[in-house]
Amino acid sequence: MDCGPLTAPANGNVGAASTTFGSLAVYSCNDGYMLVGSNMRECQANGTWSGVTPSCTLEMADCGPPPPATGASVSTTMGTTEGSVATYTCGRGRRLLGGNRAVCSASGRWVGAPAICGEILTCACSGTFADGERIQSVASSPVAAGTLGRVDAGTADFGALVLAEWDGWGGGHDGNCSVATCGECTPGGSNSWWTGCADVSSARLTCGCGGQFSPGDRVVALFDAPSSARGIRQGDVGTVIAGSSGTLPVLIQWDGWTQGHNGNCSSANCGTCTPSLTNNRWYTACELLGRAAR
Q: Could you give the maximum distance between any two Cα atoms of the chain, in Å?
């Protein structure tokens, strides 16, 4: 008995030493595809092959559980397989600082770092700030007004102050952490200063994304061409510049990109926007951005 030739499944292969009674045919799939069904069929005495032709389907990457975030719960849309979106939600007493989403990519890794949920500093400034929150100076000391920084801790002593780490400044101290009474104070370089509550304000962009982002935040594209930004691919990183109350609420300056616009600063409703000379900016929807790993 001869069972005749076999047809390979789409995106796969089939091989048999012969097609006569008792012969075995073995199926396999191309790289990136997985076999659905039996990988083997036998030529039977009645001249037909046993079973049915298996199929080859696109293999779905599995990223495993999304990494945890301190003070946050996480939920996913499709478990842990390719295309699933993980969303972090901060618990009571904490504030979301930056992106809160990640996507399982075809490479089997989560794109987008775990959210930062800063603990509200209840010992200073009436709970206005959270540990790690981006701020800006509204006074001229110790740094120029408008300078961006980050809250590191608070103290109930000395009239209630916050410890600010100022971007690009080196004229301060390492934090003097012994006086901190809330927040996680870690001694660093010389960019810190204990500052009065009235001398700083939050830099959160309250005109879009619910105050999720601040100028200077590093973000990552969760999908290709976010908000139609041609040439931007999943995993590309950029910096938050300003916010808008329009349908695309956050202005991103993408690293090494020149196919965008100069910022269209007339559309910015919060943050400070000055035109870019290299057309590397694009207004983007909040849900298409994650927090970039530092």
A: 97
